[in-house]
Specification:
The structure is a single chain. With about 325 residues, the chain is of the alpha/beta class. The protein folds into 2 domains: about 130 residues, NAD(P)-binding Rossmann-like Domain (Rossmann fold, 3-Layer(aba) Sandwich), CATH 3.40.50; about 180 residues, NAD(P)-binding Rossmann-like Domain (Rossmann fold, 3-Layer(aba) Sandwich), CATH 3.40.50.720. It contains 12 helices and 12 strands. The protein binds glyoxylic acid (2 copies). The site of one glyoxylic acid has 6 residues, from loops.
């Protein structure tokens, strides 16, 4: 094979097969993420890097991979990738936007609905044999007529907005800039503070950046309604975990539902797991068979184009997506 490709962890069979048609593949097969030292023997003459575990792609790694022509990752988020460092080395980086939008919106809205109606608590209760005459689960809350506040109104946020509207919710949102198509979205732009104080349900979908890291802390939880539901389907580090714990424990807000946590995975003895008013799932926003396959195949396609020196289909640092 003409090209040498390093894969940092698990990869779906269809994507692996696509890569193997044109590349010699070196894949890290241990369950734990590789260190740079683990990969450096392969990286020194690698043409492509397929990032399938959450490792940091930084200056140090790029320096160990002087021949690298492309990096692809089967995810929409890329907070683990130093994009500026890739760009300065003229290495295009490809993520997988688009293909996971509806799937991730289903999960985010599913968390909201499940928490609001206590679906998970009901099932625990039934399974524990507590469904007896006269026994009753605590009531949930309605979605209809409530205000849904979306922080990070990208493609996924817009898809969550549609789901909220179908349930009779009013949608407000905050972004760095208002969207030009907000009339089509039927969603109202508001300031971050306004969203915090007005929303009954807050859904976070903003990418993790230096600006968004820790953007939900003690001050932000203090501005929310005591009846507020807080849903995070973005990245765990957008939230100050201790501040969220404190807010839930003090009933400063009503409930949280999380697809992402900081740290991740969440250790089995983590204090968040002791709270009664929380629902946590293990970062499964895009985890359907169809979507994970689409993501893996798109990432493989980006990688194969990149090693050939052709433009990637979905490139983050478009200024180097030429060759
Ligand atoms: C998952 O979190 C992704 O970024 O695709
Ligand atoms: C996903 O594709 C997004 O941009 O939100």
């Amino acid at each position: 094979e003409k090209y040498k490709v390093v894969i940092t962890g698990r990869v779906l069979p269809a994507a692996l097969a696509a890569l193997e048609t044109q590349c010699q593949v070196y894949r890290w097969e241990q369950p734990t993420a590789p260190t740079l030292a683990d990969l450096s023997g392969w990286l020194k003459d690698a043409d492509g890097l397929f990032v399938s575990t959450n490792i940091a792609v930084n200056e140090q790694l790029l320096a160990a991979a002087p021949r690298l022509k492309v990096i692809a990752q089967p995810a929409v988020g890329y907070d683990n990738i130093d994009i500026a460092a890739c760009t300065s080395r003229k290495i295009p980086f490809g993520n997988t936007p688009g293909v996971l939008v509806e799937t991730t919106a289903d999960l985010a809205f599913g968390l909201l609905l499940t928490a609001a109606r206590r679906i998970h608590e009901g099932w625990d209760w039934v399974r524990a044999g507590k469904w007896q005459p006269g026994a009753q689960l605590p009531y949930g809350v309605d979605l209809y007529g409530k205000t849904l506040g979306i922080v990070g109104m990208g493609a996924i946020g817009s898809a969550v907005a549609r789901r909220g509207q179908a349930s009779g919710m009013k949608v407000i949102y905050n972004n760095r800039t208002p969207r030009a198509d907000q009339a089509d979205l039927k969603a109202e732009y508001c300031t971050f503070d306004q969203l915090l104080s007005e929303a009954d349900f807050i859904v976070v979908l903003t990418p993790l950046t230096p600006e968004s890291r820790g953007m939900f802390g003690a001050n932000e939880f203090a501005k929310m309604k005591p009846t507020a539901y807080f849903i995070n389907a973005a990245r765990g580090a957008v939230v100050d975990t201790q501040a969220l714990y404190n807010a839930l424990q003090a009933k400063q807000i009503a409930y949280a539902a999380l697809d992402v946590t900081d740290p991740e995975p969440l250790p089995a003895d983590h204090p968040l797991l002791q709270l009664p008013n929380i629902l946590i799932v293990p970062h499964i926003g895009s985890a359907t068979t169809e979507t994970r396959n689409r993501m893996a195949l798109l990432a493989a396609e980006n990688l194969l184009l990149g090693v050939e020196g052709k433009p990637l289909v979905t490139c983050v640092n478009t200024e180097v997506n030429y060759r």
